[in-house]
Here is the input.
Amino acid sequence: MDSKIFSPSMFKTFCDCPLKFYFRYIRNIAAPQIDSPFVHGKNLHALAAYYLKNIKIEKFIKKLTETELLMWNNLKQNDYFNLTPLEVETSIMTKISDFWVGGRIDALVHDGEENYFILDYKTGSIPKNAETDFQTMIYLLACDKKLQKYKTLNFVYLDLRNNKTELIKLTNELKENYINILTETHSKTTKNNWKKLTETMKCNSCEYNKVCV
Here is the structure.
């Protein structure tokens, strides 16, 4: 695990169930995925990337479903989405203590006055505790390292289905808290007795239930 870059989904999986983390990221056992819930997200993320890169999108617009078109219009009319793009669909990472964290941002935009906004498009719902969601923490810390100099750095969740936004502004206090949370969580991933866990836990509803014995 030391050579891996820890993503938000890896930390979320560990906190949800250490065994699921073990099967997926240590034993590299792939779990079956249902594609249908992710179709809207894939289509809109691709469309947004083309748009911000000034690629013609008319032919893609015509193929959107009614639901996708509604969400696209919500995104296109959003004030943050209309700021100046600096990065689009870009992988970012940073080192914390002796491990790396990273992910792939939908977009990093700015207002021309050194105020930067990491955009994350959601076709589902915004995380319940958005300020301390692993995605928020990792992306803000990685972009803080990437930019180094700025007036403000913000993470913006865009709920395209309900046309809502939630903004988290990085402060020194939050930065310190994020580093502590990630360091503590990473430490836990290195200390689990996986064999003991596999002998004592089983969840029939989990996608790994057939191998979780």
